[in-house]
Amino acid sequence: MGWGREAVPVLRWGRGGERRSSRLAYGRWFGFQAVGARGCLGARGNVCPLGAVVPGRSTGGLCPECARLDRAHSVAADTVADDPRPYRVYLAWFGPGLVKVGITAEERGTARLLEQGAVVFGWLGRGPLMAARRTEELLRAALGVPDRIPYAHKRAVRALLAPTAGERAAELEALHARAVVLEGLPGALERLPFQPVDHMGVFGLEGIPAASAVARELVAGGTVAGRLVAAAGPDLHLAGTDGRTFVVDTRVMSGWELVAADPRDAVTVPLEELPRGVQDGLF
Known about the structure:
Layout: E1 2-3, E2 9-13, E3 20-23, E4 29-35, H1 64-71, E5 87-95, E6 98-105, H2 111-116, E7 120-127, H3 129-143, H4 151-157, H5 165-179, E8 190-191, E9 197-198, H6 200-203, E10 213-215, E11 223-232, E12 235-239, E13 245-249, E14 257-260, E15 272-273
Parallel strand pairs: 10-13
Antiparallel strand pairs: 1-2, 2-3, 4-11, 4-14, 5-6, 5-7, 7-8, 7-9, 10-15, 11-12, 12-13
């Protein structure tokens, strides 16, 4: 799944030149069925030369060879040091106690934050890539701010978020105040004032019911169907005909051929039950 320019969730699937997309709308019923086998997406826009089949639970959708080629030119993997583009350092909040620091190319705008499912975020600074990298590392070392939050933790708290934007931004505001006065911040980094951006409405999270299960793989012949309740990052929150809400991790959809299914059909892909009270164990 991706996010369009208007911050609208867009479902994407397929591989190579056969990739397709469809805009999604909250409250709408839809369904699909996976057919055939899941093929490797290929590296950096190229078709996989091996025509490899990848495991259903792989969130990257690449075979080992294509994954190696993809990481060889990745800013996220810290393999690129001479990128001349300006970068921004951000602070992101996913729920109480779930904050992270990260960087993104300035030209990408807020896309990275939508892709990660950040409920609230704020910019900390902007500057060259290496200055942004050093800032990210400094916050990890000096303030203990991680650069990754597991998706399982994000999913566990989405139905329990504070009702007002001010409450949701409070933790990030306090962190921003501590971060901008840290000794050792690179001189090349331009500090930016705290201006929180709230994605609660964009993701459709107001008043959503807690999810009881998650689909972390598709299988040949397996069906996903339901009414779209919310979408955050790569996750779709769907309400099935049985009345319960479940999450589909759309990262596992890439590489499959999908055909339409009756939106009222039963869900026949594997669902992992989410333990009750899991959010209590996060903090």
